[in-house]
Description:
- This protein is of the alpha+beta class.
- The chain has helices at 2-37, 46-61, 74-87, 92-117, 123-132, 135-141, 147-167, 171-184, 188-205, 214-239, 249-259, 270-275, 288-296, 350-363, 366-378, 395-425, 431-449, 454-457, 461-484, and strands spanning 263-267, 283-286, 315-323, 326-335, 340-344.
- It starts with a helix and ends with a helix.
Amino acid sequence: MSGRGDTEGEASTRDAASLALLSFLAVLSRLWWVLRVHPPGEHVFRDMRSYVVRAQWLVERGLEPWPAMAFQPPGTSGLLALPLAIAGPEQLGAAAVLWALLSAAAVPLTWALAREVGSRRWVAPVSAALVLVWMPALSYAGLFTSETPYCAALLLACWRLAALARTGRGGLGAGLACALAFLVRPQIAVAMVLIIGGAAWLRGRDREGGAVSWAQLGLTAAPLVLAGLLSTLWIRHQVGDFAGVTATSSTLNAALGRCHLTRVQAFGSEPEMVRSRSLEAGRVVGAPALWSLHERFPDPGHVYALRPALGSEARALTLTVNRGGEEARVLAEVREGGLSLAYVGTRDDRAIHRALLRACRERTSVAGQVRYAVQNLSLMVAFNPQWPDSHSGREGWRRISDAWVWIFGVVVLLPGLLGIRQAMAEAREQPGRAVVALQLIGSMIVAALVFGSIRIRVPHDPLWLILACEGVLAALASFRRERAS
């Protein structure tokens, strides 16, 4: 017994030393990245600028209402405002350090999660080491977007949910971590419906009490419900009415994905819309991944070509908008071969977004919408570069990111899918691993129903890497069984 204890103690000491080394290297590499190689303060455009401007508004004007604050979830701007409130609203270097630390946190959190759900001891150090050198995640540490904080919050949530599934305790901590992730990116709600719903189903079937108790499920769900309420009140405060639970951009993103428009342009008046023919005019919201799909398959006859729901002919149209039971007409134009839609109104107007969604569904069959879903899902893996590395003037970064797109698609995807399959097949025996699989399934559902991209996938990459390790183990075990038989 003593010898066995010594062996276990030595293994624990080695694990602690490895974890400390990987964590130190994570902090060092991320600080080097954001302070020397890729300072996020030098890449403030498009989405990055939006988050910075909103964070500065919070620092300088506090809770003074501004409709633009409701266009994105509050979590990222709120986190970004913390260092700016301390160092000053223009001191983006302080915010870069926070982003570096959040990015570095993904390494020990991956270790903790893999130790909780992995079937072998080596899965934790291997997956953590892979996250350390995983270029797609490192890249976003140098950009003020939601990917970096969401990855850290998602890993924390998965770790606590997996521990809850194993021990039946810690529901409140798991729920708080999920609520934090929700405030950064509400898309986690889809996976949480699957996870809590699955746990409730098991609870109802388990007569021996092995599943998570109803009380713990309630403690997990409560912070998420409160986060949804907080988000609703936040939007109400900014825009003046109850416009929904999630940011006002969510319905517009859904319209882009269900209409297969590469961009939407909102103009303040009809003359302004008519005068301006530029695709960059007005308040623009775009889907770079869909534009990349169009560039990859420009021939409209190609089986995978982008086929906009509103057609490819430039034309004027009228959207019927329903506001509080009253109908109104909104002028719009289909532009650039159906790839862009211009309309008169604000980009935050959910009623216009819903009218656009209805128009696109009326013009496409169920088969057409299924086709869109397949294309959207495939964009998480291929056919588009990692934005904003694909932005004009960043060709050097694009070559590097494209290499990692290839690495994921060739090396990680298939073992990861095998790991998801294995995790769901053993959900009752290994519920923690099923939690990880359901997070990935939830992200794929969101991508299919809205639109997918490499950028949307990247925060989930540590989960893919953990399950890819498990997929390799499952494949080897199956191979050995076939040889033995």
